[in-house]
Design a protein that fits this description.
Length: 213
């Protein structure tokens, strides 16, 4: 189980689905919470829906947007590959991301270029943020990317309520190497040996305490 320090650093979990409506229905069936529609990401060619996991963390359901293509490269989070919906990554809260990215590189962990993003919420408000490149996948998605919302209100405040994140852990075939990478970026996420890379989130919700993976 993740330590309280790690839980406090989790900004959001990323649940990738081939179709957003299907992803919303899957999460509702599992948690008993229907995620609220978030918005569109023009650069990535995606759209999302959100379910709050606490006052400053949330579950993001993300899927390709049928009405737009990514402006460069493919969709993030492996959305171009067919497969079942699953937790594919997570974002940690960060600040001073350029400096942090450079420090991580000195430790042998490449987080990619720091980027800016924005989307319009259903209420018309514009969210803006900076983040390390989610397409720069570290340790098969077990290591997080980092995000800074700046002066924007945190998306968890307007997301569907009813669930609380109580734990996050991971499995990986090369658990020792992954733990070393996580230490280099000061992330104390529990990682045990497993046949395939996997994230497992423990969530208190109307269905009880479930494990989403």
């Amino acid at each position: 189980m993740a330590s309280p320090d790690v839980l406090a650093r989790i900004d959001h979990l990323v649940y990738a689905a081939a179709d957003l409506d299907r992803g919303i229905a899957e999460v509702e069936r599992l948690l008993g919470v229907r995620a609220s529609v978030g918005g569109r990401h023009p650069v990535w060619g995606t759209r999302n829906a959100l379910a709050s996991l606490g006052p400053s963390s949330y579950l993001e359901i993300i899927a390709p947007d049928p009405d737009q293509l990514p402006s460069a490269g493919g969709h993030p989070f492996g959305l171009d590959a067919a497969g079942a919906s699953r937790l594919v990554g997570w974002a940690a809260k960060g600040s001073g991301l350029e400096k942090f990215r450079d420090g991580a590189a000195q430790q042998g962990v490449e987080l990619g270029k720091v980027q800016s993003g924005s989307r319009i919420q259903p209420n018309g408000a514009v969210l803006t943020w900076t983040l390390t490149d989610p397409r720069c996948v570290v340790a098969d998605g077990i290591a997080p990317f980092f995000i800074d919302w700046g002066k924007s209100p945190h998306p968890a405040l307007l997301a569907a309520q009813g669930a609380t994140l109580v734990g996050l852990r991971a499995e990986h075939p090369h658990a020792d190497r992954v733990r070393q990478m996580l230490r280099a970026i000061a992330v104390d996420l529990p990682v045990s040996a497993g046949a395939v890379p996997a994230l497992m989130a423990s969530i208190d919700c109307p269905r009880g305490c479930i494990v989403l993976k």
